[in-house]
Amino acid sequence: MRIDVDLVAEQFDALDSNTHREALLEAIRSRDVYRKLTEDLREKVEKLEIGLSGPKSQRFKAEENGQLSLAILAQLLGSDPPADADPKALAEQLAAEAEAEAEQAGDADDGKDDETGDPGAHRRPRKPTGRRTAGERIAKATVEIVPDEVKRLGTDAFERIGEERSTTIERRVSSLVEVTVVRPKYKAKTQEAILAVKESRAELGTLPEQEPESWITISARPELPIEHGMAGPGLLANLIVRRFDDHLPYNRLENVYEREGMRLGRSTLYGWLDALRGLFAPLLEAMLMDARTAPYVCTDATGVLVQAPRKCSRGHFWVLVVPGRHVIFAFSRKHNAEAVDELLGDYKGTVVADAHSVFDHLYGADGATEAGCWGHARAYYFKTLASEPEIAQEFLGNLQVMFLLERKFASKSRKQRRQMRATKAKPIVDNHFALCHKYEDTALDGTPLAAAIRYSLNQEVALRRFLTDGRLPATNNISERNLRRQAVGRKNWLFVGSDDGAEVNTTFATLVASCRLQGIEP
Q1: Quick one: which of 120, 266, 355, 408 has the most CB atoms within 10 Å?
Q2: Helices within 154-265 (DSSP H only)
Q3: Where are the domains of the chain?
Q4: pLDDT tens readout for residues 134-176
Q5: How do beta strands 350-352 and 369-371 pair?
């Protein structure tokens, strides 16, 4: 079919400006609709990939996106670095400059934190590499292997001139032990013995009102964690660690103890733990009261299924962390403000948390202070990589430098951190929010980029809080790391049997996690 170009030109010229404008607006609307549809489809594909292969590591590699990081570092250093420069090395240079500036300003101290709960305190020691030696708690045994000819002819026929040693780590069979406690009874025969028995009875408050015909003495029965129970402290400690540190469900624990020599039903195992819960209640209450006096706390929550007759209902595990002091778990049926109040009470310090609305009522002139989590903020931009890779990389390259600096600042005192953040981290934070305003109007509503920018701008005051307080961490990752304990356990035991079962879980998860925090082997 032949197109009459002159006729088309005449028709186009006949269109008025309003028609042109309407056609253009319609084209823009169609473009935005298809663009949003494309981004939605990319996001769904990414979620399907995560469902099939698991979540991806939120790691922004400098060697793959080095130019972005170098551009940001150049602004902070005030000079153009070489094209082949390592962003990590430049970030270390920035940290060194910030430390020197802090010392020159006289704001540095001896490197020790003057308040507990500092993000630089209680850093985990680096794991040793190479061949490991046996620990001090491991029993030692020596096996000497004599040649057959020496055994046959005897040592008199040979002269021992040396030896060769090699070490292996073996394991003895784990087993239960039945301990029978024998308490002999004695009858006092001499006057001296009678006086000794009377003094002992008087100290115990068991002195009889009337003089007995004979004075009999017997040792007191050893105290047990569960009165008149058959489980000793060692077995109960082993049960707690296997259940809440190794995350073994009760049916597997049944099999473990049966292999070790005795069948212990899951109802028996749970009954022991339920009985022990009351023993630790005063300790947990004291830990919670102490946590509510800390200058800042970190908190987060995760869901858990609770067994019910027809189908499982939903509950929530909460974690409250005072870095360097406590890790406290709690359970609630609902994820709401009432659950937060039960955990935090009338707390007036700084709360490091995500931007969930359940925490909003805490903040105010007479309430707690909100501190945001840059880890949550960064996660939004990772979700944007599929739909807006160039813009997402610009945001992530900026944040990468900040996180590199924070790792260098972590070992410093809070005063040094405050000074170094003010000189080096603040420009990066300012640049982040400048990028947010730059792309705010062009990001389509409902897209991952719009959600990421909206989160950052809504949380700007809270996200900037760490810049002015050297005690505060830049992220709430410590809460998420501790909640991971529950997530790992949840993959094994799937659900809790009841609300009481959830309370048992939080009691012993608190003890085990707090021991780990203090470097104590549970």
Answers
A1: 120
A2: 191-204, 233-244, 250-259
A3: 233-370+476-517
A4: 667 788 889 999 999 999 999 889 989 999 998 888 888 778 8
A5: parallel
